[in-house]
Amino acid sequence: QVQLVESGGGLVQAGGSLRLSCAASGRTFSSYHMAWFRQAPGKEREFVAIITWSGGRSYYADSVKERFTISRDNAKNTVYLQMNNLKPEDTAVYYCAGRRYSVSYNPKEYDYWGQGTQVTVSS
Asked: Which residue from 34, 103, 114, 118 has the least number of CB within 10 angstroms?
């Protein structure tokens, strides 16, 4: 079992940067693929990025490629999302999520979720 808590959200101007953190509890954190999703008002939750349990592979939504970087430190039970060159359309509540065994871009396939952290990008 894994419990997740996001932090690091806030207000930032377009073009700025922000780093989100997701702190996990549980002995088996290192065996979970970890992902970031986001949900803007009136929209469905969408995939942002995922990193495999080993950290060997990562994948990104087209909308954030070359701007966002996902990473993890299993020794610290933490996953990060470095967000650069932020755009107003990045405004959303960002969630971290965990899933075992296989990767997925579908939020319905994830087992564990954090409470979310608000990211607001001003024009």
From this structure: 118
